[in-house]
């Protein structure tokens, strides 16, 4: 029997849930239709295409991640804020793998420009980094470093890439202390390039 009462929002959330179960790369309109017990054409009343569906999941996930980070860092600064930010990021990535994978896909400039969620993530990152007395272009450079470090770590962890007996959480905490030390001693660039405050 077909499921009644579908909306663009409920379809997007169902797609995000399915992505967490089967992997974002396996999210298709047909797979979603089967999970909702509807025919493929029924979904096209709410989405334009598979690309549109995947972008909707990406925007949903970006908003959820930004909400978690904002709640975690509220009232904190310095290392406490860095650790809270990083822990919220890691926990979301591990708990919601399909959603997290969606946040990593490239989006068209117009989609990014219209997304409050992605802008909020940049603002949260920069607000946390300003406590380290950083300004542009160092804000963007440091933001990119943190994103690379967090993404690399959680991706390796999720894929079972750490085979040593050392506790993974312990290594994560040490890595955060190392990043904190680096941010407190950020190198000075004698000839900085212009930056426009882009993505972290």
UniProtKB/TrEMBL annotation:
The HTH-type transcriptional regulator MT1864/Rv1816-like C-terminal domain, residue ranges: 82-178
An example Gene Ontology molecular-function term: DNA binding
Domain HTH tetR-type residues, every copy: 13-56
Top-level division of the source organism's lineage: Bacteria
InterPro entries: Homeodomain-like_sf, HTH_TetR, MT1864/Rv1816-like_C, Tet_transcr_reg_TetR-rel_C_sf
Keywords assigned: DNA-binding, Transcription, Transcription regulation
Pfam families per UniProt: TetR_C_33 (PF13305), TetR_N (PF00440)
Protein name: Transcriptional regulator
Lineage of the organism: Bacteria, Bacillati, Actinomycetota, Actinomycetes, Streptosporangiales
